[in-house]
Amino acid sequence: MLTRFRVSNFKSLLNLEFKPMAVNLLIGPNNAGKTNLSAALRFLGLTAERTLDAAALGSVGECWNLTNVNLRNATEMEFETDCSLKYDNESLLFNYKLRLKVERGNSASTGVESLSVIQEHLSVSGGSFSNTPMLKNEAGQVDMLHEEGLVRKYTNSPFYAHAKVPTSATLLSQLYELENNPRAVAFRRYLRTWAYYNFAPEALRTPDVLRGSKGLMSNGNNLSAVLFALHNEKPRLERQLIEAVQLLEPKLDLLSFNAPDPDHIYVFVEDREGHRLSARGLSDGTMRFLAIAYVLLATQQVHDENGVAPLIIIEEPENGLYVGHLKELLKRIDMKGSSGQFIFTTHNPYFIDLFDANIEGIHIVKAGHPSSVLNRPDSSKIKNMLDQISLGEMHFREMLG
Q1: 144 DSSP β-pair partners
Q2: Percentage of the chain with pLDDT > 70?
Q3: The pLDDT value given to residue 155
């Protein structure tokens, strides 16, 4: 589970530190930095499997304006995480630091920025390790720890293999899965579970099959293919999904599909009498609810199959939905984070009300100069006021801090 995330010189964020709980809510006015924080998390997750420039494109949608506009002469970007993970019955604490160089193109009209690694460090504590460096990358000159040598007492001092790697991607993303480095690989596997969703109803309805995509895309535009795979490969999980969506659509009995060619899959819902309705006939709210329910169930499935509790970010899940339905859906989340860690953003006071028993998970993002500011409300003070005023109303009246 992610316990600390620090980011500097990414969009509106300068040396901002985020200490998430198992379930979190980011609130604040528009343009405060909630989406920038979400994008920074997504960017770091993507660097574990893509080049740096591709990670920027995947998290922000462009390869320019990545850095803080108030520091146009700054040429470095930094990320740091603390994560607690289980590996082979060991409780391990990982610290990962990534410092990047930002190089701007010559074109003033685009300002394209290219990223390269200046420094990358991964260390671990727990079991046979005590703040032991596992990976060290200094501008492409790398040292990689022979983990099993320490664990099995082959040697009393750490042994490091040396190599040179391209700086256009992190060492973590280029790491081979060898028996010498299973914990570093486990950390990479965890970073790769970090997922971001901002569902668009029209994207959720598209029948296009996106070749090479893994899981549900951020905007949901391969939902039909994901549900088709679920139908064929995991029918029990599909049944759980249908039961979850019945909170919103009680008549829903099953999902059916039409795949006229390899590039298109059309999804339909059917009631017990066999009446069939296509995705085009479902409301925006129903499509978003279906996608959110799938994400929650898939998160549990990832944990059950791989023992990894993913980090899931969902932007404004209440859009187009009756919050009462989400209340029932969110009850499926383990508030201790054993099967997954969640970050939601919202502007809806009624969705904020759902966190009145989890005030410690609320984080307030405010615009500032030169950086966004992140605060937590005083939980004891807020709890004392809940008998007189709701949490959402407190936010509306700017009483949360």
Answers
A1: 135, 161
A2: 97
A3: 61
> pTM of the predicted model, to two decimals?
0.94
pLDDT at 110: 53
Whole-angstrom Cα distance, residue 108 to residue 278? 47
Cβ density class 370-387: b for 16+ within 10 Å, e for less = ebbbbeebeeeebeeeee
- Report in angstroms the alpha-carbon separations of 121 from 20, 97, 115, 221: 22, 5, 17, 35
Q: SS3 of 373, please?
A: strand
Give the separation between CA 144 and CA 247, rounded to whole angstroms: 50
Pair 178, 188: CB distance under 8 Å = no
Residues in the chain: 401
Domain regions of the chain by residue span: 49-191
Positive/negative CA dihedral, 35, 341, 346, 296:
positive
DSSP assignments along 5-69, one per residue: EEEESBTTBSSEEE---SEEEEE-STTSSHHHHHHHHHHHHHTTTS-HHHHHHHHHSSSBS-S-T
> Tokens 């379930």 map to which residue?
23
**Rounded distance, CA 361 to CA 75, Å?**
33
Predicted pLDDT of residue 109: 47
Burial class (CB in 10 A: 0-12, 13-18, 19+), 45: buried
**Cα angle for residues 216, 334, 191 (degrees, 5° grid):** 45
Q: What's the distance, CA 213 to chain centroid? A: 16
Q: Is 176 helix (H, G, I), strand (E, B) or coil?
A: coil
* DSSP at 332: T
Give the integer Cα–Cα distance in Å for 361 and 338: 16
Separation CA 18–CA 311 (nearest Å): 14
Give which of 77, 83, 181 is closest to 135, Cα–Cα.
181
CA distances to 128, 155, 180 from 152, rounded to whole Å, are 9, 8, 11
Q: What is the pLDDT of residues 71-130, one digit of tens each?
A: 878 889 999 999 999 998 899 999 999 999 998 775 544 567 899 999 999 999 998 899
Q: Please compute the mean of the pLDDT values over residues 132-154 and round it to a whole number.
A: 88
